[in-house]
Write a structure and sequence with these properties.
single chain, 96 residues, alpha+beta, GIY-YIG endonuclease, three-stranded antiparallel sheet, 3 strands, 39% helix, globular, endonuclease activity
């Protein structure tokens, strides 16, 4: 299971989610770009800037809740430590 953070092109919005298939989930987010009925579509938040692997769904859900409870500055620090330039992460080429 993965916990991941998406942002929009101007890096003003953060979306935190979990999935068991990160590649599939990123495709789903990008397919819904502009869909006003969904948070990621409304705010064009489909750029992966952070992810972490969790042992199981219980751990992933707990981590997601923890991250969602953090301040924006704490989330920014986490992303910056993992991805200093906040570059779009391509899972096929990311060397982290």
């Amino acid at each position: 299971m993965y916990v991941y953070i998406l942002t929009n092109p101007t890096k003003t919005v953060l979306y935190i989610g979990i999935t068991n298939d990160l590649t599939r989930r990123l495709y789903e987010h990008s397919s819904g770009r502009g869909d006003a009925g969904k948070f990621t579509g409304r705010y064009q938040a489909d750029l992966l800037v952070y992810f972490e692997l969790c042992q199981d769904a219980t751990q992933a859900i707990a981590r997601e809740k923890q991250l969602k409870g953090w301040t924006r500055s704490k989330k920014n620090a986490l992303i910056t430590a993992f991805n200093p330039e906040w570059q779009l992460i391509d899972l096929e080429t990311w060397s982290g």
